[in-house]
Amino acid sequence: MARYSRSAGKDVERAMDRRKKGKLKRGKGGKGGKVKSRKQAIAIGLSEARKKGKKVPKKAAKKKKSKKTRKTKKKS
Predict the structure, then answer these.
(1) Distance CA 23, CA 14 (A)
(2) What are phi and psi of 13, to 5 degrees?
(3) What DSSP character marks residue 53?
(4) How does 8-41 read in b/e, with b if 16+ C-beta sit within 10 Å?
(5) Which one of 15, 46, 49, 73 counts the least CB within 10 Å of its CB?
(6) What is the distance of C-alpha 39 from the center of its chain?
(7) Could you report the per-residue pLDDT of 49-67, keeping only the tens digit for each?
């Protein structure tokens, strides 16, 4: 069973083309400058597909970082 719809793949392709032409922008409203990263272009394409209601898996939940405790040496 496919995880992504074909139309979602087309959205990603369009985002990749816009990145190549230098038209893909980052940030809300595209005010954060040009996207140079391939991975970021894919993420933007998938995000656009999600907004349109196409078949795309949910975003992976962020893992909480646990605070590491440092063990101190006891003076004898």
Answers:
(1) 11
(2) -60, -45
(3) T
(4) bbebbebbbebbeeeebbbeeeeeeeebeeeeeb
(5) 73
(6) 7
(7) 999 999 998 888 887 777 7
